[in-house]
Design goal:
Length: 276
């Protein structure tokens, strides 16, 4: 089942039909205890919307939540970061965090700095080397449980983070540096480890980079990331946690204005954003 946030309130997509949940706010719907069971029980009392289109009404699936992110959870990310920061003497930190019990977790964006499906993402004006990071993103509810999944793009300025690991917040957090969407997928069981994450970057309509990875390539468990995120840290409306990238384009590649980024995680859908 998929929850969408729209200008008309939250909508549920179930068996290819759409159902309005306008009696509840988006924040309150996504934080219902046992969300899958709640949707399953309540959808039977609702009438499917006819000729429904999300095109004009879709909003990012976030209202009062913060977006956090995990880093260096895939070998590819560890190796790319060690390489980009070796001249600054920072390479060793990534090796150590990859092996450590405590994962890297950082604050990514407020809802106001986050965009949704089809909205524009940005690259910083003081950076010359930028990439998208396609990441499965957990929705963690106010009780600290993983209640759903969405697609995330953790836009990153590699020259800034490579100059000094202490510059990470500047490389990661700025206006429109995070994209999530198009929906929150709610499942009766955890998402399968065989799930594929695909990235395609198009320039003037032509593919300039594409690659895929699987959740099974991730070094850490989702529960482990959530345990550290929520340790002595409360989220009254829940929060989103990006789980790290397993895809890093070659060092010769940087995004430019006009590039379109497609991230597909099949059970959820495709998140598309253009660099503005
Ligand atoms: O340590 C830098 C950021 C890592 C990150 O964002 C990732 O691995 O996805
Ligand atoms: Mg990342």
């Amino acid at each position: 089942m998929k929850i969408y946030n729209t200008t008309l309130g939250p909508y549920l997509e179930h068996n290819s039909s759409f159902y309005a949940y306008d009696d509840l706010s988006f924040d309150s719907l996504i934080n219902q205890p046992n969300l899958y069971q709640f949707l399953h029980d309540t959808v039977t009392h609702k009438v499917a919307q006819k000729d429904f289109s999300l095109d004009e009404i879709l909003l990012p699936p976030i209202v009062s939540q913060e977006v956090w992110a995990s880093g260096v959870t895939y070998l590819r990310s560890k190796n790319a970061r060690m390489e980009e920061s070796k001249d600054a003497g920072g390479g060793d930190f990534y090796d150590r965090v990859y092996a450590a019990d405590r994962p890297e977790i950082f604050f990514k964006a407020t809802a106001a700095r986050t965009v949704g499906h089809t909205q524009g993402v940005k690259i910083r004006r003081d950076s010359k080397w930028n990439v998208p990071e396609p990441e499965l993103t957990l929705f963690v509810n106010s009780k600290g449980d993983i209640a759903g999944y969405t697609i995330g793009n953790d836009m990153s300025s590699r020259d800034i983070e490579g100059e000094n690991p202490l510059y990470l917040p500047q490389a990661k957090s700025y206006d429109k540096s995070a994209a999530i969407g198009p929906c929150i997928l709610v499942l009766p069981q955890p998402i399968a480890k065989e799930t594929e994450i695909r990235l395609l970057i198009e320039r003037e309509g032509v593919g300039v980079f594409s690659q895929a990875t699987h959740l099974s390539q991730m070094k850490r468990e989702f529960a482990e990331l959530v345990r550290y995120l929520t340790f002595d840290c409360s989220f009254p409306h829940g929060c989103f946690l990006m789980t790290g990238t397993g895809i890093v384009p070659p060092d010769s590649f940087s995004l430019i204005k006009g590039d379109t980024i497609h991230i597909t995680i099949d059970p959820i859908g495709t998140l598309i954003n253009t660099v503005e």
